[in-house]
Amino acid sequence: MWTKRLFKRITEPVDPWLLLFVLMLVSVSLLTIYSASNESMAKISSKLVSVGVAFSAMWLIANLRPQQLMWLAPIIYALGLILLFGVAAFGEITNGARRWLDLGIARIQPSELMKLAVPMMLAWYFERYEANLRLKHFGVAALLIAVPMILVLKQPDLGTALLIAAAGFYVLFFAGLSWKVMLSLLVITLASLPVAWTHMHEYQRQRVMTLLDPMADPLGAGYHIIQSTIAIGSGGLFGKGWLSGTQTHLDFIPERTTDFIFAVYSEEFGLLGNIVLLILFLCVIGRGLMIANNASSVFGRLLAGALTLSFFTYAMVNMGMVSGMLPVVGVPLPLVSFGGTAMLSILIGFGMLMSIQRDRKLMKN
Amino acid sequence: MSRRTVLRDHHGERYSFQLRLLVAITAVLIGFGILLGRFVFLQVIQYDKYHTLAESNRISLVPIPPSRGIVTDRNGVVLAHNFSAYTLEVTPSKLPGKLNDTIDALAGLIEITAKDRRRFRKLLEESKDFESLPIKTRLSDEEVARFAVNAFRFPGVEIKARLFRHYPMGESASHLVGYIGRINDRDLKKLEEDERLAEYRGTDHMGKFGLEQSYEEVLHGKTGYEEVETDAGGRAIRSLRRSPPVAGSNLVLTVDIKLQQLVEQAFGDRKGALVAIEPSTGGVLAMVSRPGFDPNLFVDGIDPVSWRELNDAATRPLNNRAIQGLYPPGSTFKPFMALAALETGKRRPHDAIADPGFFILGNHRWRDDKLDGHGMVDMVKSIVVSCNTYYYKLANDMGIDLISGFMGPLGFGSKTGIDLPGEKAGILPSQEWKRKAFKRKEQQRWLAGDTISIGNGQGYNSYTILQLAQATATLVNNGVQYRPHLVGFIEDSASRERRPVEPQPAKQLPYKPAHIEVIKQAMVNVNLAGTSAQAFASAQYTSGGKTGTAQVFSLKGAKYNASTTREELRDHALFVAFAPADKPKIALAMIVENAGFGAQHAAPIARKAFDYYLLGKLPAAEAPAPAQPAPPSPPPSPPQSPIEEFMSRPHVD
């Protein structure tokens, strides 16, 4: 009897659809990591631990009410900003960039936190002023995005800065930013590209150039893109079969459990596998947008929409980069790549989605 | 704020939000659509390209060099073979520091001589720096072990097991067996032009001289390949497929190496050449050129000092005198002249002349060896006593056109086509030759006086010892002429199946058997009672021969230094011979440079060769003494011109 109650208590906050799709993606992840790591059980158990941690976090968040999330939003945002300033002041330098902050107990990357904090903060902000939204509110919102973005840009971490900006922009978009403004933003962005180019760091320009012409330096900067493109292309329709990717198992694919894991998957499972993966991602995105549509509050709607589109962005950017369409930026394939931190932040986001969905159920009841 | 407005606003907002959700979904679908398009492009449309790229990433073709065919003499004695040994090799481009530092450090482990260093530096100049070059070859097991322990200190240096060519006979027969050497840029270019470069992947050496060069394609074999799966770091993971190499074919020579060595020892320090041919096949039984050289020096790349010593030596040890040295045949030409006289009807055997000791044409006098002449001389006597006057007159009677018309088909003045590279054609004097050879008009005309000394094998006559030997063999073989050859059989190294090289006669020359008999008999008489009778005293077989002496001077030497030493200007001793007389098994021609009279210096060597070849007799008493390479011959002080520039001096008083 108590087991049934416990089961109910555990499953009650969880959205079964979202959970199903996430579990399927995690299965893909485990299969691919096993292959990419040359059948390392250590890698798998380590991944399972981070999956466990991330799922627990998701469950805990799912138990919160959206109101509580709203209450937390400015706090987390403020905390994130402080940490970002901290990084700028005392951050550790790795690989020429100042991204990490050593808090004594753990090293954290505050820019990662900002990916969640910015959409939360903006959703909170628009919830507050929902009754009479004016252009100036959008102006304030833009500032809320710009400050963390510029801080991250200074680290420098162009990729994350853009992702933070994108998450914030999605909130603006769902909040009803006028089409005219968005159009002019687009024009301004395009017009400022040449200016941006001159302000980019050498390695960033290099990455763009590499994308445009990977063969210019086939053993240097172009190597990653060339080898991952070869892996994908040689996978063909049905792939070379699980554990049989030659590019994977002979070490031709770099970073193949993390950022380039899609090349491994694609080599072994082919176009058919890619379609399955795209469908799984679509299901997650569809469910997320459905939750956004059903949300009972502005906060819930905006947050759910923005988190879902962020998830789409990660997937799109990663697959675009690995297949040689976008420059190489350090974005893992969500839920599939090995990294624990990325998984944690994604599932925390999904916990919020579940919380928003659950709130609606509660209200109905 | 009333509740209603809020609600209405809610509805409006909700509508606007749903519109934007639709836009978002559309954007997502477009995004994934682009990705899908990209995947279809890569995985379906360009699949072949990427499949090939992945395969070439993964599979590398590792060539397996074939083992080179071995060379044996007619009795199976090995003249060239391979053995496996370890070499210490350096890939200059892989070295972390300076090349010399590495070599110095290596020298602490393994003895690296100054010669090794010179050799390596020369190799370095001739190669690309990503090639693996041997710094030290033929390591002992102990040296291999010592390096293996320290290998971690030497990135870019490794021990490789390789097949080495070895010539167990050393100097002996070196001119005909030849040697292999490292493939250089010029060889590569040549191979590329011939579209044979692929066959040489994995092979560092190729034939550079002698039979090793002329039979390169037979000896080399076919390169095998192993398909090896390699990872991104270039490490071999496993072997996928293997097509084994096909070993090169073996060469079985017609040469009898014991005969060869016996002749070489008989020459001792003297310079010269000898070619012995089996008349019934054209197979070369021995081809000697003295002095010789050790072909083993060339195998690993010769060091510059040794190379200069060999190449610049006045005695020209690298020249194969048997096919590259051009000499006037002297009196050894007389039997052929006599045959020409019979065949052209200018003389009958018994036609005799009175020899006063000289021949006069116009206001020139040509002298005989014997001042007061040989008296009445017929054809046989002319050969036995080697009467010059007989042949001055004969040549004058025949005229140059008839002489060159007869000597040409016998092989004088044209390449025999022997299976060795670098053969010289020599000069068969004729009106046409003179027209082409001289620039000035007045020199181009053939003079009647030019013909006179031709009959005695002097004048413009200039032939190889091989041509002389071939002509002798053809003569005693009743005019059946074979192309002389050194390789009797090509033997498949796996099945041991033998394929003969020279099965059919090349040419039948239309000589009357009776005429040939006269000449042969006269030559038999030479060995019995003539100039070489002493050398052939109490032989257990009948043999024929003809001695010759070619008077020599070096044009250049005479020009540059009037006081050239006597030895250089001393006459060449020549000899042609065959035995046994009734059915000759061996015919030879030879020259001992600057030795003087032929009977004294050349004929005894021929006697030894015949005694061994026909009777199996080895000159026991003499064998050890001249066998050892004698101390280097005294360096002649004045520069000596190459032997092909030696010219005969006509008998002109």
TrEMBL record, chain A:
Record key words, sorted: Cell inner membrane, Cell membrane, Cell shape, Cell wall biogenesis/degradation, Glycosyltransferase, Membrane, Peptidoglycan synthesis, Transferase, Transmembrane, Transmembrane helix
Subcellular location: Cell inner membrane; Membrane
Pfam assignment, any one: FTSW_RODA_SPOVE
UniProt GO molecular function: lipid-linked peptidoglycan transporter activity; peptidoglycan glycosyltransferase activity
Main location: membrane
Record EC number: 2.4.99.28
Spans through the membrane: 17-36, 48-65, 71-91, 135-153, 158-175, 181-200, 269-290, 302-329, 335-356
Reactions performed catalytically: [GlcNAc-(1->4)-Mur2Ac(oyl-L-Ala-gamma-D-Glu-L-Lys-D-Ala-D-Ala)](n)-di-trans,octa-cis-undecaprenyl diphosphate + beta-D-GlcNAc-(1->4)-Mur2Ac(oyl-L-Ala-gamma-D-Glu-L-Lys-D-Ala-D-Ala)-di-trans,octa-cis-undecaprenyl diphosphate = [GlcNAc-(1->4)-Mur2Ac(oyl-L-Ala-gamma-D-Glu-L-Lys-D-Ala-D-Ala)](n+1)-di-trans,octa-cis-undecaprenyl diphosphate + di-trans,octa-cis-undecaprenyl diphosphate + H(+)
Pathway(s) this gene product operates in, as recorded in its UniProt entry: Cell wall biogenesis; peptidoglycan biosynthesis
GO terms for cellular component: cell division site; plasma membrane
Record's bilayer topology term: Multi-pass membrane protein
GO biological process: cell division; cell wall organization; peptidoglycan biosynthetic process; regulation of cell shape
Function (record text): Peptidoglycan polymerase that is essential for cell wall elongation.
HAMAP family assigned: PGT_RodA
Family: Belongs to the SEDS family. MrdB/RodA subfamily.
Cited NCBIfam families: rodA_shape
The protein's name: Peptidoglycan glycosyltransferase MrdB
Organism this protein belongs to: Chitinimonas taiwanensis DSM 18899
Gene designation per UniProt: mrdB
From TrEMBL, chain B:
The protein's Enzyme Commission number: 3.4.16.4
Organism from which the protein derives: Chitinimonas taiwanensis DSM 18899
Start and end residues of each Penicillin-binding protein dimerisation domain: 63-239
Renumbered residue ranges of the record's region Disordered: 623-653
Reaction catalyzed: Preferential cleavage: (Ac)2-L-Lys-D-Ala-|-D-Ala. Also transpeptidation of peptidyl-alanyl moieties that are N-acyl substituents of D-alanine
Membrane topology: Single-pass membrane protein
Coiled coil location: none
Transmembrane segments: 21-41
Protein name: Peptidoglycan D,D-transpeptidase MrdA
Annotated signal peptide: none
Reported cofactor(s): Zn(2+)
